[in-house]
Amino acid sequence: MGFDFKIIQEYLPFFFKGTLLTISLSLAGIALGTIIGLFIGLGKMQTNKWLALPFVWYINFFRGTPLFVQLLLIHFGVVPLFIDKTNAIAATIIALSLNSAAYIAEIFRAGIQSIDKGQMEASRSLGMTHVQAMRYVIIPQAVKRMIPPLGNEFIVLIKESSIAAIIAAPEIMYWSRAMQGQYYKVWEPFLSAAIIYLVLTLTLNFVLNRVERRLTTK
Amino acid sequence: MIKVDKLKKSFGSLEVLKDISIEIEPREVVVVIGPSGSGKSTFLRCLNMLEDITEGNVYIEGIELTDKNTNINEIRTEVGMVFQHFNLFPHLSVLENIMLAPTKVRNKSKEASKDKALQLLNKVGLADKANKYPDSLSGGQKQRVAIARALAMEPKIMLFDEPTSALDPEMVGEVLEVMKQLAREGMTMVVVTHEMGFAREVGDRVIFMDQGYIVEENEPDQIFDHPMHERTKSFLSKVL
Question: What does pTM read for this prediction?
């Protein structure tokens, strides 16, 4: 059984389309997940325990249940509730965003809380409000510490977007499964997919390293 | 200038300050001494409400700190504070450290705050470090920048919380020198310190605290040479 480059070549246009969709799903997930994550993180940091409770349980739920389960619930349950039919791409973006938001919220909280409390005290002693102290003193320092774990999370998110193949969103894994189904081959479709994912994650890794270096040398 | 009336402070069930009353006049330098755990830092931190006040009142220039209508941020612009561990902002240059609060809180222009910052750096002898970052400074230099940062708000009162306790011995002098100069210029100062030489030389009044009470307060010469109270005597015999 030889390795058949011809069928890979035949599927190249599909892999290309699939890669574009994977990138789009990931970018949307990263952007929305970060925004929602900041919100959830701030919510969890509230001193009032009762007000923080919904945010705590948001994180418990999305970290404590499989993304697979969340995706199916959203795809077959939540999305049809709003638009009366299923939509694989919308469901994937929603699931990825809500899921990664739970992790990003914790990264955000840990970053903020890792800053020495003397920084807040010094800021407040100079007459700054809590918001000013956060904006000019705490968050700029916290962001630097948040970049490495955020990078990890974004890489996980790119890889986890492959689960969208299950609900037939035509991304990379969808096309490699189609290829496998058509030719009954294993190595060609899945190695191709692996290589594409590797290129995507390594590229992101490279970009994040650059950002991190720029922030720390400043 | 500062009036403390029956101040009490508890952390949970632990009562750290038990009934502290004192008045501090303008231009006065009050030095607070006492064993660790006596509540002297907590007392200082209540004067600008870095600690919530459990009971009693603190008045700064007649304004009651615990009053709901008091804007504590406004009071704090008048009360500078210097910390044991400097608490400089590591992501900002020395100049930016000093300029941050005047530009953001007082809404002063960049130029005006920069002029003021350079003038203050000159005063503490660090004009050449303006564009350095805190990490590259020695402990004594950091503390002098921290003093300049507090002074940039042009406060009427300065609080010092063990400003030389985290310094190598050879750097203590340079920080005390800046504080002496401030005292000579007439700044109202409350200083928590273990530097008895400084207390004697610069202090107008020395307060000895122990177990959450003010045990004894007097002029430095009196308290150091003729302590009245047994606990004061035993503390001074250990540190002098």
Answer: 0.84
* Mutate which: B78, B82, B87, vs A, most A CBs within 10 A: B87
Dihedral through CA A173, CA A177, CA A178, CA A183, nearest 10? 140
Reported in sequence order, the residue ranges of B36-162 that DSSP labels E, i.e. its strands, are 55-60, 63-64, 79-82, 157-161
Which of A12-46 are b and which e, b meaning 16 or more Cβ less than 10 Å from the residue's Cβ? eebbeebbebbbebbebbbebbbebbbbbbbbbee
C-alpha separations of A153 from A3, A157, B37 in Å: 34, 6, 44
B-chain CB neighbours of A132 within 8 Å are: 104-105
Query: Chain A residues with CB inside 8 Å of B101's CB?
Result: 123, 126-128
Distance from CA of B149 to the nearest CA of A (A): 9
Partners of B79 on chain A (C-beta within 8 Å) are: 125
CB contact A122 to B (< 8 Å): yes
In contact, B230 and B215? CB cutoff 8 Å? no
Residue A46: predicted pLDDT: 87
* Nearest-by-Cβ selection for A127 from B50, B77, B91: B77
Whole-number Å distance between alpha carbons of B171 and B138 = 8
ipTM above 0.85, yes or no: yes
What is the C-alpha to C-alpha distance for residues A200 and A154, in angstroms, rounded to an integer?
11
A188: nearest Cα among A196, A178, A179, A197: A179
Out of B48, B90, B91, whose CB is closest to A125?
B48
Q: What is the pLDDT along chain A (218 residues), one digit of tens a residue?
A: 678 888 888 999 999 999 999 999 999 999 999 999 999 999 999 889 999 999 999 999 999 999 999 999 999 999 999 998 899 999 999 999 999 999 999 999 999 999 999 999 999 999 999 999 999 999 999 988 999 999 999 999 999 999 999 998 899 999 999 999 999 988 989 999 999 999 999 999 999 999 888 877 65
**CB-CB neighbors (< 8 A) of B91 in chain A:** 140-141, 144, 218
Residues A133 and A51: their CA atoms lie apart, in Å, by 23
Looking at residue B88, the DSSP 8-state letter turns out to be -
